[in-house]
Amino acid sequence: MKHYRMYTTVLILSLFFISCDSDDDIVIDEPLEISQEIKDLIYFKGDEDAPTVLVNVQSGPDTALSTGEVDEIFQTFDTTDLLAVNVHQAQTLNPSPFENDDITFNQAINFNSESVEMLYKVVNYFKNQGRTVYVLGISFGAFVTQDLIAKKGIDVADNYLIMAGRLDMDEIVWEAFSEGRAGYFENGTNPILDQEPEMDAIDRNLNRLAAGFAMNRYTELLDSFNDLSSITYVYGEVDQAVGRLTTSEIELLQSKNTNIITGSGDHDQTINDFITQGFEEAFGISLQ
User: Which residue from 75, 202, 219, 272 puts its CA 20 to 30 A from 212's CA?
Assistant: First the structure.
């Protein structure tokens, strides 16, 4: 499972009613602004008071907050009345613990929990303002998004597009990653794993972050939800990075009314071939 860096809100008007001698009310509309606390957790593009917010869950994992994913959304899609944001994760907000020395697997799990809490804080902030909120999770971002749903509920956002992720990663794979080793799926099904850990501590640590999400059995964690129809799930049949979905994973999604899109390609091809369809079906957002 390699690291892949890929591309990811109903206007509230503050109404103040001032009593006058007449029976008429004077309505003053004040545009929304993003609080500094939230700005410190995101990179964003678009009008701060846009009625729709698209929250990108950064792929990777990486130690730098991406701007390219949000920028590409604005270059590619119709972003009228859209605010797009990319949210910090623990390793992008404070990279230093990951760069020189090895972290433990338990530390990686705790860092992942911090990332989910940051994501929830941002999503919940915009949702509580009454905006329509969409969440985009691709590759590593798919796992973070699944964990957000499992921990905070499906209604935390309005709709989700999850691409090139897995619900139940093969145990042999996530265990290897927890040890700092790397690998891939031959033909999307057969795990091929390195016997030795990565050379650099940062790569070993990022592998551990990936394992900290991949160890979870999301078919079990999401089974308690009656309906997951707000999710569009895209996977590739020969995805070399995370593997293809198994029958049990597909059946869980089908049983919860998830919109499933299947491609015949690998990791990159699946994302490139279906990002436009995914945006249209999940968010109703079309190309420019």
Answer: 272
| Residue 100: Cβ-neighbour burial (10 angstroms; 0-12, 13-18, 19+) | exposed
Contact indicator for 168, 246 with CB cutoff of 8 Å: yes
Q: What are phi and psi of 234, to 5 degrees?
A: -115, 130
Per-residue pLDDT of the chain (288 residues; tens, 9 = 90+): 544 433 333 332 232 222 333 344 443 456 789 999 999 999 999 999 999 999 999 999 999 999 999 999 999 999 999 999 999 999 999 999 999 999 999 999 999 999 999 999 999 999 999 999 999 999 999 999 999 999 999 999 999 999 999 999 999 999 999 999 999 999 999 999 999 999 999 999 999 999 999 999 999 999 999 999 999 999 999 999 999 999 999 999 999 999 999 999 999 999 999 999 999 999 999 999
Are the C-beta atoms of residues 208 and 218 closer than 8 Å to each other? no
- Token pair 């971002």 is found at 141
Q: Which amino acid is it at 79?
A: T
Dihedral of alpha carbons 262, 264, 267, 269, sign: negative
**Beta pairing partners, 30:** 14
53 touches 134 (CB < 8 A): yes
Cα 92 from chain centre: 14
DSSP structural state of residue 156: G
Between the CA atoms of 95, 93, 89 and 31, what dihedral angle is there, to the nearest 10 degrees? -160
- The half-sphere exposure of 59 on its side-chain side, counting CA atoms within 13 A, is 25
